[in-house]
Amino acid sequence: MLTRFDTAPITQLTTDPETGFIQAKNVPIARSGVFPYLKGDGSIEMEAKLPNEILGDSTVTSANNKPVTDDHPENGTGQRILVNKSNAKSLMKGFTASNAHVDQDTGTLRVDMTITDDDLIKKIHAGKHELSIGFQTDIVPVKGQYNGVGYDSVQKNIQINHVAVVKRGRAGHTVSLLGDSAEMVEKEKGKAMETTKVRIGDSTITVATDDADKVMKLDADNSANAKKIATLNAQIKELTAQRDALQGKSDETSKNADEAQAKADALDKELQDTKKKYEGDAFDKAIEARMNLIDEVKPIVGDSFNPKGKTEKEMKIEAIKTVDDSIDLGGKSDDYISAYFDSIKKRKNSTVVGVTGSEIAGDNADTSATSLHASYYNRKK
């Protein structure tokens, strides 16, 4: 069997007045659907959680009376492990209830849970507010379609082992139920699970598993960046040739040569600045900035928003046009676009339909524990 780690937001938290324990009611931990998985070899495969499997009696029962942990447990070498009787004493920070059930209206598997550990309770109140489900499953290579979406294989014999409380490295949550996404990386039981190979262009790189989805989303931005570098190099080469052809001629042509050199120098500086954007920790910062922007634009544009292949400026313009399609942004500077986007973002945050102030609309009734006693954005497995 393969081991999986799925993510979802904690919702509907209350505190027991006598013990101080945190209780989470009716938590959605799984749903049926077809989800893309980033496999260990860097390829992506569509896997199906069919209703008769994920909502079947065996899987539902396996969610009862299971350990709650602070992050997914690891052994001394950094490999993620499952919880059992020999390590439960040190790893258990709470437990699920014995009321796991299927919500037929939403097609989700839900269960109550109690968190008893004081340190973890403090972390939750400080913003650590998502759940990641650790479970084992058999992957059967059979193609088909579910709700109009094609899949390459089916998850069978799904058995939940534990529920980890985690804090993901980006603002907002793109799915109100289950984080079915590139985070769900296929790894064989017993092998290291902290890194993942991701295909970027013609190369394969190794990244932290939790960052795999971010890197893949940034791939389109990297491609645009490479094209820009190639264009700048071509322009510099052309201007240098013009300078060489004009040198030694009249004063006027000498002046033109100087101008060509100045333009080439300016382009060379732009080239170096562009390259620096993806050197050292600037790459991580670029990933974080793009992910944050996507989270800001999507609530404005709606579920149809697709960031793939779009620059930051193009995403901001799409958001602006959604709010005011009559505005002419032709020839406007990046600073102008950014300032305009910031203004409509603030307006959008203060006038979200159906929620108030600190609330952010989600795909359904699920809410974020950032506002532990209020409600909570959209995403996969």
Automatic annotation (TrEMBL):
Q: Where is region (Disordered) located?
A: 57-79, 245-269
Q: Which InterPro entries match?
A: UCP029215 (IPR016913)
Residue ranges with Polar residues bias: 58-67
Quote any Pfam family the record assigns.
DUF2213
Domain of life assignment? Bacteria
Question: Any idea what this protein is called?
Answer: DUF2213 domain-containing protein
For bias type Basic and acidic residues, the affected ranges are 249-269
